[in-house]
Amino acid sequence: MLEYAGLQSLVVRIQAQYVNNDTGSPLYNNIRAGDWLMDYIINRLEGLPELEACLSYIRTLFGRIRLLPRSLKPKFVCELIVTIYDKAVERILGLMTGVGQT
Fold first, then answer.
1. Residue 29: how many CB atoms within 10 A of its CB?
2. Up-side HSE of residue 60: CA atoms within 13 Å toward CB?
3. How far apart are CA 90 and CA 20, in angstroms?
4. Is 33 helix (H, G, I), strand (E, B) or coil?
5. Is the Cβ–Cβ distance between 93 and 16 less than 8 Å?
6. What are the tens digits of pLDDT across the range 1-26?
7. Which residues contact 31 (CB under 8 A, 6 or more apart)?
8. Does the pTM of the predicted model rise above 0.85?
């Protein structure tokens, strides 16, 4: 289903679901069925000291999402994933602005 293990692959799927208003997609159904995606994202970030602050924040937000009814989880999980992705891209681009300058 997902082409890559990173956030980009998820974001592409999520954006397609938004455009098509597809709340019955396999991704949404899997999120409703369990917390695997949140666990997967947390596990991918563990062991990266430079991302510890980000991981702590994501754990907190996912912890709150875990308490929601299953029917609401896809919306909030997907919103958070897109936000994480957007912030990561923003940070990367910000770091690149100084490349080549002396």
1. 11
2. 6
3. 26
4. helix
5. no
6. 566 667 888 898 888 888 888 788 88
7. 37, 73, 74, 77, 78
8. no
